[in-house]
Structure formats: C-alpha cells, structure tokens
Amino acid sequence: MPDNTRKKFRRASVIYWMLLSYIVVALVWWFISLERQNDKMLDFKTRQLDATIDPDVSPTLNYTEYLKIRKEYNRNRAKHISEGSVFMILILIGAAFVYRSVRRQIRMQQQQQNFMMAVTHELKTPISVARLNLETLQKHKLIRMTIQETARLNFLTNNILIASELEGGGYKTSREELDFSDLLKDCIQDFRNRFPDRIFIEQIEPDADVKGDPLLLQMLINNLLENAIKYSPRETPLEAILEKGNRLVRLQIKDQGPGIAEEEKRKIFNKFYRVGNEATRKTQGTGLGLYLCSRIAKDHNADISVTNNTPHGSNFAVNFHL
User: Fold this and answer.
1) What are phi and psi of 201, to 5 degrees?
2) pLDDT tens per residue, range 162-173
3) Beta-ladder partners of 135
4) pTM assigned to the model
C-alpha cells in the first residue's frame, strides 16, 4: 500500500475509533445516569412512604406500597438494561459492518490501482516494441518479435474484455460438444510458433470431449500456458497432460519455475491478485489470467487447483466433471 494511501487509512481509522468510542461512552453514561435517577426515585418514594404511613397502625399497607415501589424500580432497571443492550449491540454490529465495508473498499481501490499500473506497463511495452521494430524493419528482420509483442497485446486486451463481459453479464456463453484434445494441441502449437525457443512436452489422450464455449476454453488453456512460460526459466520444459477418466477430463499444465508459496496458493485465483509487490516484481501481468481460469472453470462445471510440481515448480490442474 502506498504511503499516501496508508496515511489516509490511518487517519480515517483514528477518527472512526474516536467516534465509536465516544458513542459507546455516551451510551454507558446514559445508562449510569438513568440508573442514578432510578435509585434517587426509589429513595424518594421510600422516604415519602415512611413519612405518610405509620407502620404501627397499618403495617400491611406499608409493606404493600413498598413492594409496588420496589417493583417499579426493578421494572425501570430491566428496561434500561434491555434498551441499553439492544442499542449497544446495534451500534457494534453497525460499526463492524461499516469498518469491514470501508476496508473492503480500500482494498478494492488498491487492487484497481495495481491493476491500472500493471495494464499501463503491459500496454506500453508491446506498443513501444512493435513501433521500434516497424521503424527498423527495413534494416533488420524483426517480424517474429513484432508478431510476439502484438500477440501479447491482443492476449491482454482479450483478457480484460472477457473478464469485463463475464462480470457484467454481457458475454453469452455457448454450450457445444468439442474435442478438447484437438483444442489443446492447437493452443500448444500456437505457443510453439510464438516461442520457438521453449520446450513443450505433450501427453494428450485423444477424443477427450467436453461441453462448453470454445473461446473461453481456449482462453483457459492459453492463460495457463502463458502463466507457465512467464514464471519458468527459458531452458526448462513445459508439460501439458490431458487424461480421460470416469466421467472426468483432467488437464494439467506443469512448469519448473520457483513454485508458489503455500500461503499464496489460495489467493492467486483472486481478481487482480499477483504474487509479490507491484513496484518490485519483474514478471509481467495484470492479475487477471488465473482469475479468468477460475471463472471459466466454474462456468464449465470444473474445478481448478495448484500443487507443487516435482522436483520443483507448479502444477495447475483443471478437472472437468462430465
């Protein structure tokens, strides 16, 4: 969190807790004042009763009147306690709700800021590289590098567009039978063309049919492959495994990168979340790729998870339940 945002949050927190403390103290003081008033009223009525009724002449009447006064006193005390308790509970529930809502809003704002920073870097880099390559194309053969950067730019914009449409309900998902084996092979071949220096290992069982949206499933595969390439050394191979089971199709994308810490594994599928600090991390990305994978998997009756690869790296697995 930037220093400016942290200072604003700290200042808002101080003001919030001061106001909440004042409200709680005022409520407690209100209860104490009412109880003091109730005690004074009990004492006043008791003394008034003692002054007007002679206990030697009418002891029964005196005792009956005293019970009435005591009953009214207890009734007032119970009313003060119940009303004060209800007010205190409502105040604390409301305060907790407001505090959580504000923290959630600040966290979302920070994620959006990180996202805009990442998108800015992501958009500027391929545009600059493509422009530079086109300007020097007459002297050097830089077509392949230019195609890679424009493909990355297209990949990024597609992620942003599809994520926006899925959340806004603007994307109309289709459901059709397709050969997931062929789709995976086509995606891997496309990555081989884009990254001829990378090693891809395939273990793909044929005729693994699933029912879903071809574009979304292609984005699922592409994001997993892109993530594996991004976080693994250039000389290490990437492995794609597709297996058929009993009413199950299982896709695995394995890399030999640094892996993911245990405390990060449950966070990486959150929207805009990226491992590390936005200002210091070296890998490119927007935090949308794995979020999209999780969203697409859920829409296709599938679950996605990440485990450690052996001997090192990550293993992303998607199980389609047929």
Assistant:
1) -110, 130
2) 777 777 666 777
3) none
4) 0.58
* 36/30 Cα distance (integer angstroms): 10
User: Is residue 82's pLDDT more than 50?
Assistant: yes
Reported as a single tens digit per residue, the pLDDT across 188-230 is 998 898 888 899 999 999 999 999 999 899 989 999 999 999 8
Tokens of 208: 């693994």
Homologous superfamily (CATH) for 177-321: Histidine kinase-like ATPase, C-terminal domain (3.30.565.10)
Q: Taking Cα atoms as reference points, which of 135, 149, 136, 293 lies closest to residue 225?
A: 293
Distances (CA, A) of 112 to 6, 271, 280: 16, 10, 17
The dihedrals phi and psi of 254, each to the nearest 5 degrees, come to: -115, 140
d(CA 301, CA 304): 10
**pLDDT tens string 99-143:** 888 778 777 766 766 666 566 566 667 766 776 776 666 555 566
Phi-psi region of 198 (alpha: psi -120 to 50; beta: other; left: phi over 0): beta
How, if at all, do strands 200-204 and 238-245 pair? parallel
Count of other CB atoms within 10 angstroms of residue 263: 7
Beta strands in the chain (DSSP E): 176-179, 200-204, 209-212, 238-245, 248-254, 302-308, 314-321
Structure tokens at 133: 């390559």
Q: What is the DSSP string of 275-308?
A: SS-TTT--S---S-HHHHHHHHHHHTTEEEEEEE
